[in-house]
Amino acid sequence: MDVLDAEVLDAVARWQAQGDDVLLATVARTWGLAPRPVGAMMALGARGRVAGSVSGGCIEDYLLAKVADGFRPGLRPHVQTYGLTADEAHRFGLPCGGTLELIIEAVTERSALDAMRAAINAGQLGTRELDLRTGEARVRHVRQPAAFAYTPARLTVPFGPRWRIIVIGDGQLTRHLTAMAVPLGYQIVICDPRDIHDIHDGGGGEHNTPTPHVTRVSEMPDDLIVRLRPDGNTAIVALTHDPKLDDMALLEALKSDAFYVGAIGSHRNQSSRRERLAMFDLTPSQIGRLYGPVGLHLGARTPPEIALAILAEITALRNGTLGDTTRRVMPSCAAESPPPSAIAHRVLTRNERMPVL
Predict the structure, then answer these.
(1) Domain ranges of the chain
(2) Among 38, 266, 296, 338, which residue is least crowded by beta carbons within 10 Å?
(3) How far apart are CA 103 and CA 164, in angstroms?
(4) 210 versus 79: which is more confidently predicted?
(5) How far apart are CA 38 and CA 289, in angstroms?
(6) Is residue 346 predicted with pLDDT exceeding 60?
(7) Where are the alpha helices (DSSP H) in the chain?
(8) For 55-103, what is each residue's pLDDT tens digit?
(9) Using CA atoms, how far apart are residues 44 and 25, in angstroms rounded to an integer?
(10) What element of type H or E holds 52?
């Protein structure tokens, strides 16, 4: 489930609270090219409102017109296929050879969407199972990620917590990374124990303003990572340029289940960092997990470009499309990174506050 589908569930809850009748359309099957994957959802309000998408827009417009004409699927979900012919595919704006099948249901208390939304917000893994004969749904909690499944009798849509990025360091680069990552469905945890916020904000108190899907903490990075217990939906990236802080985070991050662990810095600094990490209880395979310098090769030089390169690398790995030909770093990291400190591998005491660099 992606961030767009989570927004669909939020819209359904909001519209129902306003007394609106709501229909839910789910992509159940695709053939050939399709604009949206199976499991993608779209909500249609009786007042002509839409949240989410199942196509490039034409099917959405068609369904809105049908709803305006009084279409309701009843208690039993309605199955509709689009793009069976070339003319129909062209009419609905589907790619060449693209066909998709939708399950359209009326949202009621039997739909279990509130339970699904609550589980997602609680960071739980699960599935929503819709009985296509009765329209009744239930939410099941699972220990491992489940697969999407569709049979004539049942539609099973898996869901889980948002993807998460733990960022060490709260500087300008982190601001740009956060601004890009949240719309892509990432939950952000920013960790920086240094007293630098007033300097960055110009005294404006920006860090005191709550931001949806962004959490700021000031504890030591290694303590944070131990506490959060990163899972396979978590990426960790160290951006402080301070070897003391970055190394503290990496010592725990590389032993975690995080799917991505990266650190900013030049190739020279990365080599020194790996030598320092080898002095501790990390195995060569754990150290080999480190992405450093971070970011795809985009020729990035400005903080927004570097943030884009980092997020592109994380997302490519998340989507299983990261290859050796794309694993190159931006030259800007070498220009920004200071030389390794002689005390880089020193373990800080827990009550020591970090100085501003």
Answers:
(1) 3-159, 164-198+206-324
(2) 338
(3) 30
(4) 79
(5) 32
(6) no
(7) 3-17, 58-68, 86-91, 113-121, 172-181, 197-201, 221-228, 243-253, 267-277, 284-287, 303-318, 332-336
(8) 877 888 889 888 888 888 888 999 999 876 666 666 666 665 578 899 9
(9) 8
(10) strand 50-52
Q: What angle do CA 298, 244, 338 make, to 5 degrees?
A: 50
Shortest CA distance to 237 belongs to which of 275, 292, 279? 292
Residues ≥6 apart with Cβ < 8 Å to 47: 15, 20
CATH of domain 164-198+206-324: 3.40.50.720
Under a CB-based contact definition with an 8 Å cutoff, are residues 326 and 308 in contact? no
SS3 117: helix
Angle between helices 172-181 and 303-318 (to 10 degrees): 40
Tokens of 64: 């809105």
Structure tokens at 14: 């909001």
Distances (CA, A) of 335 to 173, 301, 305: 14, 9, 14
Residues 159, 319, 316, 192, Cα dihedral to 10°: 20
| 191 CB-contact burial (10 Å; exposed 0-12 / middle 13-18 / buried 19+) | buried
d(CA 189, CA 217): 8
Question: How many residues are recorded in the chain?
Answer: 357
